[in-house]
Amino acid sequence: MKYPGGFTKKGNSQVNYANRGMNFEADINITNDYYRDMDIAVIYKKPTPITINKVDYKSRVDAVIKEAHFNTPSTTDYNGIYKGKYIDFEAKETKLNYFPLSNIHQHQIEHLKKIIKHGGIGFILVNFKNLDKIYLLEGTKLFSFIESNERKSIPLEYFEKFGYLIKPKFNPRIDYLNIIDSIYFGGMV
Fold it and tell me: What is the pLDDT at residue 15?
């Protein structure tokens, strides 16, 4: 039997999470749709800034982009507003038991620093795909690690100690605002 969110159950066998990591961005988008539909927050995925160089016009309604290039490096994946606070975050995945810092670019880190400096909420969501664990790590904790370590990756233990585990559920799928409530608005996790 197929359950919502890609879970599968056959007879008395265990739940299969095999495709959950592949759908991380889709799950975040569905979560954001839920937040908007329920009038909880207005958060969107930012489009990647590109310039189209070449298009194949097969018909008026069936144009295909053949060549394009990035205008500028994109900042982060998502932004919006929640309870009067600007939110900006990056979503990343890793198949490893650590998060390689090469997965997040320096311009993204600088962008998150500016968001926090100006009173916004900045963080990263990291899906440890093979461990079926998703963590929210506040931008300040990310910066602290980078500034005080020479490591080229953040170990899972750091996320376990300083991050917040998000347990996926039906709706909203990846409820990161529950954690934001706890950190910034005195709510319960």
Answer: 43
**Rounded-to-integer distance, Cα 159 and Cα 167, Å:** 14
Fold of 10-48+74-184: Trna Endonuclease; Chain: A, domain 1 (3.40.1350)
- What distances in angstroms separate CA 83 from CA 80, 107, 122, 143, 173, one per listed residue? 10, 27, 15, 25, 20
Tell me how far apart the alpha carbons of residues 21 and 8 are, in angstroms, rounded to a whole number. Answer: 14
pLDDT tens digit string along 41-53? 999 998 665 566 6
Is residue 46 within 8 Å of residue 74, measured between CB atoms?
yes
- Phi first, then psi: what are they for 175, rounded to 5°? -80, 75
Q: Which residues contact 118 (CB under 8 A, 6 or more apart)?
A: 86
**Which strand (E) or helix (H) includes residue 56?**
strand 50-57
Residue 8 DSSP one-character state: B
- Domain-wise residue ranges, the chain: 10-48+74-184
| Alpha helices per DSSP H over 22-175 | 24-37, 106-117, 139-148, 156-162
How do residues 145-167 score in pLDDT, each as one tens digit?
A: 999 999 999 999 999 999 999 99
